[in-house]
Design a protein that fits this description.
By secondary structure, the protein is mainly α. 80% of the residues lie in helices and 0% in strands.
Amino acid sequence: MAISYVDRQTLAVLAPTVTRELGISEQRYGWLAGAFSLAYLVGAPLSGRFIDRVGARRGLLWSVGLWSLVAATHSLAGGFATLFALRIALGVAEAPSFPGAAQTVHRALPVAERARGLGVLFTGSSIGAAIVPPIATALSRRWGWQSAFLGTAAVGLLWVPLWIATAYAPDTRRAIDVAPRERNSEPPSSTWEVVASPPVLRAILLVLASAPVVAFMLNWGAKLLVRAYDVPELRVGAYLWLPPVLFDVGAVAFGDRAARSGRLGTPPALVVVAAALAGSIALVPFARSPWGAMILAGLAMAGAGGLYALLTHDMLSRVPRDAVAMAGGITAAAQSLAYVIANPLIGRSVQRSGSYTAALVMLGAWLVPGTVAWLTLRRSDPRP
């Protein structure tokens, strides 16, 4: 998960430089940010079925090799059209990342530890988002923005031997592979059965409510610092590490608290607290300094990380074992749908108003209906 976010976030970190040098407007950048998510939206459910069939051990290995190649090719982009096509290709290649990771956690850990495991899993995305700003900006400053795409893509090659050494060990293979007798013991859940199940539908609603908060910080954080706080383009990495780190804190803390509750599902009170924290994104434009903005954004990211861990734990505790990766792929697709819709709207709002205030206040307000819907529908959902 960390590797996938390093590769997908390099463009966001270098957005002020790349968009200026390639003549890409704010609104077109919104479409670039949405292009990856559009491809991920289509690819995630399909890759979930793929991972359920071949297993995460092989599926993740193939996927990382492919997306590292696509990420490196970003260095050849000469304009909006080429970059748009490459973002689509990267979204398709990275689609198996979360379904494979979720399946691994679900199979490798006992039931009582899965909430904690999922909390730790979500730190991968923010670790990647935290380390890419200093790496990408340093490479760009020394050798140009093209070198940053090559350098961050090479990180994926370091992961391959680590995965082979661990996931291909005999004990691990027995834990995470699907035995033939288990695979054939009962008919696999159909795609529609998984999508239409109440736990997955509830998770989709909460993802759609919370994902735009994460989308803003991942894709617009650098631009916010440059435009609203006059931070030099190649210095944004000094600030952008904080929100991803606090996303980690939220994911781990809320996942651990859910595990300590002793329930297989998620306590509703935890969801309310996490949603309230995520809603603090609306306060970011009122900060007077870049550090103040990043602290408020970090609190919002901590809430979003908690929501991601809680909704995923609740959902996976209620779906059939053979559908875990697909369920993860469907919620990943819901996240991408939120990104596809939110990024162009944010770009349009910023271009028309000249500030981020309206967009951020709306992102905070948008959490309310999704959280209420999750809580309401949960009352009629059967216990796992």
